[in-house]
Amino acid sequence: MESAYLRFKKLHERDIIKDLFDNIDAYDGKEVCIVGWAKNLRIGKAVGFIELNDGTHFKNCQIVCSVKDNWNYQEIASQNIGACLYVRGVVVKTPQSKQPFEIVSNLVLILGESTPDYPLQNKKHSYEFLREIAHLRPRTNTFRAVFKIRSEAAFAIHDFFHSQNFVYVHTPILTASDCEGAGEIFQVTTLPLEEKKEVDYKDDFFGKKVGLTVSGQLNGETFAMAFGNIYTFGPTFRAENSNTSRHAAEFWMIEPEMAFCDLQSNMENAEALVKYVVKHILTRCRDELEFLNQAVDSGLIARLEAALDCKFGVVTYTEAIKLLQQSGQTFEYPVSWGCDLKSEHERYLAEIIYKKPVFIIDYPKHLKAFYMRANDDQTTVAAMDLLVPGIGELVGGSQREERLGRLEKTIESIHLSKEDYAFYLDLRRYGGVIHSGYGIGFERLIMYLTGMTNIRDVIPFPRTVGNCNF
User: Fold this and answer.
1) Does an H or E element contain 34, and which?
2) DSSP states of 364-388
3) For 303-362, how does the pLDDT look when each residue is reduced to its tens digit (9 = 90+)?
């Protein structure tokens, strides 16, 4: 039997399954040591087959074990799916089989047993069921694919901005201002509110009313006025009582802010970022995409490849409304100038009319946030939303209002406190320039990259109305 010391030592000397798949010829005929979790076990009286995965590669590694080569064969045969195993054996190429190689074991040690009631047996589970066991769902093929793509997409985003000489800024999670002016923020307090009929926030931790941020944009703009080009990438929170498949109470946002940048340059940067991330995922996550293309969305890969090969469309809000009205399509929500575009309108524009990603620009000012630059027509603002097939809105941004007088009037007209936004107004007083920015909901981007249709299935531990588990 192997001593505990040898087990510990060999864990530090293990080979990586990804390396085996990437360098099969180099490993053929050589002895390797791997660890991983059993995804499937087919154990007979004399020979058994185990599919093992260590998390480094989407595909499983097949282990062949036999009575004659494994002294503890009966112990191996008693294991269940989910058990963690240490395997030593010889790599054998199998070009005629489904898998390119297998490992013929001469030692299998059980590092962590799994009980027979392990929830993830070899059958298809609904996404709703898997959300109830969010601590285990990363072990399924679908969510291993989704969260590997999420990881690679985050890397690609940082890589893109780093290559463009952007400065990465960590904006605060706790804030005393509401970026959107919507009031849908989570309050943060140390006061025992259940004991108070009237609240004096002077007694609170920060001495004022504070909430979780809905956006890092306003803080990001302060750094753009010093560094030129910056971006934020962090968690944001919306206390919006919405149970749709596209909304969550906690989600991640990517928010670049660029000085000396107008609306056109803003759109060009957003298009370049989306294409950069798509190309990275198509290159680095091919196995995951092919699985999702087969199991989730049969048009996924073709849609992503098409996005790389096209120039994104651009249309004004006014023209988009005309196109929708002339389409002959009956929408659940009727379309008229001044209405807020719904998901059905956005997807119809991207999927049916343009058949590719398309920017909608120059929205009515009453639909957009106070900081967006007013156009000369006095009725629209220099806003832009990027709509993509399968999702609808992916990017939202604008050229920011750099004119101090215009911004002060807007803040007053919507009854926001100029005192609360004094720092923001100062940016216009002290060397303010034309600048623009946009935000991408990271989870919506992952939905676009994976074909998943519910935001709860692209974030590790979803926080939604009535749900804050794990």
Assistant:
1) strand 31-43
2) EGGGS-TTBPBPTTSSEEEEEEEEE
3) 999 999 999 999 999 999 999 999 999 999 999 999 999 999 999 999 999 999 999 999
Residue pair 346/337 in contact (Cβ under 8 Å)? The answer is: no
Let me know if 346 is exposed, middle or buried by CB neighbors in 10 A (0-12, 13-18, 19+).
buried
> Which tens digit of pLDDT belongs to each residue from 142-189?
999 999 999 999 999 999 999 999 999 999 998 877 665 555 888 888
Phi, psi torsion values for 78, nearest 5 degrees? -85, -5
Written as one letter, the residue type at 37 is W
Q: Residue 440 is encoded by which pair of tokens?
A: 């991408």
CB 381 within 8 A of CB 371: no
Instruction: Mention every residue, 6+ apart, whose C-beta is less than 8 A from residue 327.
Output: 348, 352, 353
Torsion of CA 159, 163, 167, 171, to 10 degrees: -20
Q: Are 265 and 436 in contact (CB under 8 A)?
A: yes
The number of C-alpha atoms within 13 Å of 341 and in the hemisphere containing its C-beta is: 30
The mean pLDDT of 375-403, rounded to a whole number, is: 96
